[in-house]
């Protein structure tokens, strides 16, 4: 028995603001129905007594230490800039903004 109909797919397409042809609606209904059938078969597998597996990778959130190191001063950073204004890089305006 089919779990998802063409009308279900049309409703989902409307919610997702997708425009689908009648052929696509019919095709996707069959594909989604096959996916749901496979999922239900997997869910039906008896896993009683099967120990859950865990992630074999032990490294989580590997980051470097956040150490303070000497860096450029504001003047040094701006020394190579073509133009600086009020201690900041000056760049051309974009998107038609007025000067």
TrEMBL record:
Biological processes, Gene Ontology terms: glutaminyl-tRNAGln biosynthesis via transamidation; regulation of translational fidelity; translation
Entry keyword set: ATP-binding, Ligase, Nucleotide-binding, Protein biosynthesis
GO MF, one annotated term: glutaminyl-tRNA synthase (glutamine-hydrolyzing) activity
Record's keyword annotation contains ATP-binding: yes
GTP-binding as UniProt keyword: no
Catalytic activity: L-glutamyl-tRNA(Gln) + L-glutamine + ATP + H2O = L-glutaminyl-tRNA(Gln) + L-glutamate + ADP + phosphate + H(+); L-aspartyl-tRNA(Asn) + L-glutamine + ATP + H2O = L-asparaginyl-tRNA(Asn) + L-glutamate + ADP + phosphate + 2 H(+)
EC number: 6.3.5.-
PANTHER family: GLUTAMYL-TRNA(GLN) AMIDOTRANSFERASE SUBUNIT C, MITOCHONDRIAL
Family affiliation: Belongs to the GatC family.
Function: Allows the formation of correctly charged Asn-tRNA(Asn) or Gln-tRNA(Gln) through the transamidation of misacylated Asp-tRNA(Asn) or Glu-tRNA(Gln) in organisms which lack either or both of asparaginyl-tRNA or glutaminyl-tRNA synthetases. The reaction takes place in the presence of glutamine and ATP through an activated phospho-Asp-tRNA(Asn) or phospho-Glu-tRNA(Gln).
Subunit structure: Heterotrimer of A, B and C subunits.
Name this protein carries in UniProt: Aspartyl/glutamyl-tRNA(Asn/Gln) amidotransferase subunit C
Record organism: Mycobacterium yunnanensis
Gene designation: gatC
């Amino acid at each position: 028995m089919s779990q998802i109909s063409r009308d279900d797919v049309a409703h989902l397409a409307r919610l997702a603001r997708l425009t689908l042809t009648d052929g696509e609606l019919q095709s996707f209904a069959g594909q989604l129905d096959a996916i749901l059938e496979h999922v239900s078969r997997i869910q039906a597998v008896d896993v009683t007594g099967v120990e859950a597996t865990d992630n074999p990778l032990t490294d989580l959130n590997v980051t470097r230490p956040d150490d303070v190191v000497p860096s450029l001063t504001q003047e040094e950073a701006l020394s190579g800039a073509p133009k600086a204004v009020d201690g900041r890089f000056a760049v051309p305006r974009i998107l038609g903004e007025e000067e």
